[in-house]
Specification:
Blueprint: H1 2-15, E1 27-34, E2 38-45, E3 50-58, E4 66-76, E5 82-90, E6 93-97
Antiparallel strand pairs: 1-2, 2-3, 3-4, 4-5, 5-6
Amino acid sequence: MKFVIVFVALFGLALAAPPSASGEASIVRSDSEVGPQSYNYAVETSDGKSASEEGHIENLGAEDEAIAVKGQFSYIGDDGVTYQVSYIADKNGFQPSGAHLPVAPEV
């Protein structure tokens, strides 16, 4: 049940950005598969936004059962640059990466 909530929340977030200056964006591709122990989806819009994600349950039936998620999203910024963020969310927390994101200094 948790993965369905995560799926719906992230799908909504991917499509919630305001429409482009040229008008409303339309969905040009949308694929999804939701099962009892895993899911995946991919969506692209006519204004250059895209998002994809896959998730599955780790340690099914164990006390430390959890969802592990891997995905990415991208969009074209107001400066014309395409920004892309890849991420993993699992027992170690949310771990985003992208060329435009700051990186913590190594100790």
